[in-house]
Design a protein that fits this description.
The protein has helices at about 1-95, 105-115, 130-140, 150-155, 180-190. With about 200 residues, the chain is mostly helical. The chain has a domain at about 100-155: Muramoyl-pentapeptide Carboxypeptidase, domain 1 (Orthogonal Bundle), CATH 1.10.101.
Length: about 200
């Protein structure tokens, strides 16, 4: 009888094992599936996070570039406004004073001409040729190129230009005046001619 009990117990244990094995296996499979799904979700979240970060960086770059362009355009607009206001100011000054041109501009034009840069006619007027000549000079001298006679350009161009050669400051002796200098000393030792 012990044999029967042992055989029945083994059969029963074997039946329970076969019945429960798929349930245990399914439980392990479910855990694996859940872990894979979790890993997949984490990977997708990381990918989405990276894409968002890249999008933000791109947006920041675009905004930064737009700001730089705006600053550049604003600077150009300010320079144009300064040019226009300087031209209008010169025009009004010339009309009020009845002047045909600015002495400062005339000096600058002459200085440019002396340096071999043609400013057009030397008339004291800040015309397009003078502006182009100033731009050329500013480029050659590594100054900020504005095409205007700004303080930096004026200081370097006009204030450092040597004055043009002027006539000799010595004067000839007046007619009938006694000669002076070394030649007069030589003549003093010579006998005088008698006139009749």
């Amino acid at each position: 009888m012990t044999k029967k009990i042992v055989t029945t117990a083994c059969a029963l244990a074997l039946g329970v094992a076969w019945t429960m094995a798929p349930a245990f296996a399914a439980d392990d499979t479910a855990k694996d599936k859940m872990e894979r799904a979790k890993d997949k979700t984490e990977t997708k979240m990381e990918h989405a996070k990276d894409k968002t970060k890249e999008g933000m960086d791109t947006a920041k770059d675009k905004v930064g570039n737009a700001v730089d362009k705006t600053k550049e355009k604003t600077g150009e607009a300010v320079e144009k406004t300064k040019d226009k206001s300087a031209d209008i100011k010169d025009s009004i000054r010339n009309k009020v004073t009845g002047s045909k041109g600015s002495d400062t501009v005339r000096h600058a034009q002459q200085a440019l001409m002396d340096k071999g840069i043609s400013p057009g006619p030397i008339d004291g007027k800040m015309g397009p040729q003078t502006k182009a000549a100033l731009s050329t000079y500013q480029t050659k001298e590594n100054l900020k190129v504005t095409g205007r006679l700004d303080s930096e350009t004026k200081a370097k161009l006009i204030d450092t230009t040597p004055p043009a050669a002027s006539p000799s400051t010595t004067t000839a002796p007046a007619a009938g005046a006694a000669p002076t200098g070394p030649a007069a000393d030589q003549n003093a030792n010579m006998p005088k001619k008698q006139t009749q």
